[in-house]
Specification:
The structure is a single chain. The chain is mainly alpha-helical. It is 84% helix and 0% strand. The longest helix is centred in the middle third of the chain and has 73 residues.
């Protein structure tokens, strides 16, 4: 958050030079008119023009940074919405997979109940042989 605030407040970034130069020239004219009525010397005129330019550029940059920040923030929220949708799809796939696994387990339990003890022994021997073939190790083997 601190980074984002710092990015908005400083440094002032100016993206549209023609509009900004026009605004600055207008403010210089206003500053000269205001300081003319006070009867300042030419050095004081230049000083006030310089100060007003710094203030104007800073605030214009601040406004430009706020717009840039808003655009970046909207892009971030769009990306997050896409990730949220993908996460929801993944959760649905996980639920389906759990359902398929449970269905498979029920099927094998029913098949196992109907096997004779000799057939059960043959199945266990075949399963053990295939596990050794593929190099499968389970926590039950240890």
């Amino acid at each position: 958050m601190h980074y984002l605030i710092k990015q908005v407040l400083w440094p002032p970034v100016i993206k549209y030079p023609l509009a900004i130069v026009g605004t600055i020239i207008t403010f210089i004219g206003i500053t000269i008119e205001l300081t003319d009525s006070i009867n300042l010397s030419w050095k004081q005129h230049i000083y006030w023009i310089y100060v007003s330019l710094i203030i104007i550029i800073y605030f214009l940059g601040l406004i430009a940074n706020c717009f840039i920040f808003a655009i970046k923030l909207s892009k971030i929220t769009d990306n997050n919405q896409g990730l949220t949708k993908q996460h929801q799809i993944d959760l649905n796939d996980k639920k389906k997979l759990k359902g398929y696994i449970k269905q498979k387990d029920i099927f094998f339990e029913e098949c196992w109940k109907r096997l004779s003890p000799e057939d059960k022994q043959l199945v266990l021997i075949e399963v053990q042989r295939r596990k050794e073939e593929i190099g499968f190790e389970s926590s039950e083997d240890n």
